């Protein structure tokens, strides 16, 4: 797909202000390995979440000569450590919206979840910022459809952080070309026009905070580890196959298959990290204790509780909403002891970003 259709120029004039709230997402089929400008080596699919969100307000004013491109507040405070990432994002997206160069952006952001909880916030943060910028661009497009707007927002978000491309709409988003999803592509994520089984409506995600530290392996380093990885070709092929199989389970409501595939994906992600050069073990003893207990609980009770993992020690516990009561009792009694200060976040599948 050519990226020319994403280039849009407009005159630098006027003032504009907007605010968007974008959710985090949790991948069921994992994106791990990229090339070119944030393009994925394999397709991924994620649940869009609803409680873990970033809210970002941006005002665009004409930029005077010699002034900076942006100023940034996080939780109402100056946080210069975020500047390089924002600058890199603006540098990457400006070729697709050159008028931005004529503007100064005043950006103010906050998260609904603690920044130091070990939950990656780049997906929701980049998606919220991308939506504000796409909303600004929309002022100059009298003919833009909702679909065109969302595609551009996802395209821009991807340039900030790959997984952010999937934090735009819900309940499930596919990013990367897969033969199972006709409109899927590497440039932006889509919410497939598929009737998912109702068991996945408001599917629960309880995030167990095993380690609050920031990620030990940065995204860029992590994806780079797949370059020349001895298992990379098999892994990319596996992700394609898993996605095709998962689509069937998500439509039929086959929870056994859903659990089997999503847990296999989480462990495949960590297997890639454990066998790369350099190698990383990001799971901790408490992570493994939780995985063991989840498996035992499922065998003993038959309840469909399963796990998935990000590139870190924390565990996302997935289960249907109707099972919430007994499963939360189990989590409280048996699993919170493995969390730092018992910290956990109760989230569920949601419908995507919104303008505030
Ligand atoms: O968006 P990035 O570059 O932070 O990569 C995210 C990678 C995983 O979270 C491990 C998997 C995924 O698909 O979200």
Keywords, please?
356 residues; alpha+beta; Alpha-Beta Plaits; seven-stranded mixed beta sheet; 8 helices; binds (3R)-3-hydroxy-3-methyl-5-(phosphonooxy)pentanoic acid
Give the integer mean of the pLDDT values. 94
Overall helicity: 25-40%
Mass-distribution shape: globular
CATH class of the largest domain: Alpha Beta
Domain count:
2
Number of strands: 13
Largest sheet: 7 strands, mixed
Helical segment tally? 8
Strand content: 15-25%
Distance between the termini: 32 Å
**Radius of gyration, in angstroms, nearest whole number:** 20 Å
Looking at the structure, the CATH topology of the largest domain is Ribosomal Protein S5, domain 2
H/E element string? EEEEEEHEHHEEHHHHEEHEE
In short:
The protein is of the alpha+beta class. The protein has helices at residues 83-93, 122-138, 146-160, 219-224, 232-252, 255-274, 285-301, 324-335, and strands spanning 16-29, 34-35, 39-40, 44-62, 70-74, 77-78, 103-111, 172-175, 204-208, 306-309, 315-319, 344-348, 354-355. The two termini are 32 Å apart.
What is the strand and helix layout of this fold?
Blueprint: E1 16-29, E2 34-35, E3 39-40, E4 44-62, E5 70-74, E6 77-78, H1 83-93, E7 103-111, H2 122-138, H3 146-160, E8 172-175, E9 204-208, H4 219-224, H5 232-252, H6 255-274, H7 285-301, E10 306-309, E11 315-319, H8 324-335, E12 344-348, E13 354-355
Parallel strand pairs: 5-7
Antiparallel strand pairs: 1-4, 1-13, 2-3, 4-7, 4-8, 5-6, 9-11, 9-12, 10-11
Helix pairs in contact: 2-3, 5-6
Bound molecules: (3R)-3-hydroxy-3-methyl-5-(phosphonooxy)pentanoic acid (PMV).
